[in-house]
Automatic annotation (TrEMBL):
Protein's UniProt name: Thiamine-monophosphate kinase
Gene field: thiL
Source taxonomy: Bacteria, Pseudomonadati, Pseudomonadota, Gammaproteobacteria, Lysobacterales
Keywords from the UniProt entry: ATP-binding, Kinase, Magnesium, Metal-binding, Nucleotide-binding, Thiamine biosynthesis, Transferase
Binding site for Mg(2+) 4: D33, T48, D78
Binding site for Mg(2+) 5: D213
Organism: Pseudoxanthomonas winnipegensis
Amino acid sequence: MTASPAGSEFDLIARIRARAGTRDDVVLGIGDDAALLAMPPGMALVVTADTLNAGVHFFPDVAPADLGWKALAVNLSDLAAMGASPAWCTLSLSLPQADPAWIDGFLDGFCDLAARHGIALVGGDTTRGPLSVSITAMGHVEAGHALRRDGAQVGDEIWVTGTPGDAAAALQSLLSGAAVDRALRARLDRPTPRVEAGRELLGLASACVDISDGLLADLGHLCQRSGVGAQVQLEQLPVSRALAGFRPQLRWAWQAGGGDDYELCFTAAPTRADEVQAALDFAGVPGARIGRIVAGQGVQALDAAGAPWQAPRVGYDHFG
């Protein structure tokens, strides 16, 4: 990590370095101008980056540990969508002031999730400014075997992991001042990146995308890259116990367009359905078939009667 002469910044970096640890594939980590990393033979490097800004991606008073977890989770979700094994990451923090207690809390959540997925913190930056977190995560996948968005074929089935809509329901409750179900709030604050599922889907899924902006929006990105269309059966969307009590029209809006799920939406040939289910079971990740890839363009959501349903919002757009 780079640093200015300010002693307080050096202190923060030292705290981060102490928590990062060392391992053999990190030839040179925190403390130099850049990191030196050792790639396993026969693997392709997978790189992703995300920025979370206070007031846009999280409430300014969020618990530091929850922010540390989520900031890493959104990047791990991108690696999962490529079928990659997490390896290394960098962390850049913009902070209004040097706050050791806040850093320690942030690192509690960050390092907890990092340890679960074997990802090493190898560098980054700290600076003074509005609260913002930027992470670049790197992983590796067998060369030529990465999951991509451009492989869906007409006739493929559409699958989704987990229960989309939970995070959006929690956010809506918070914004309206209503009481928030604890299970829904946990899905908003600490999403579960589906890394194990992504690895197990290699060779089975024809295309894959992670759900960050909303199911219909992100499935639309997959369809655009693949040159196909999609039909989603809303009644087949998996529902958590906490979300099941809401009326369908309201629930569908969160499930289809809410975003912040960090689940995987993927396609696979119908003949691979049993293998896909076995792979998800092995990964310990719930999954459900929710529709089919069709000829044409765009994503069409259908209600229980098979009639087209118009989502109040297809997904999140930072500049929309």
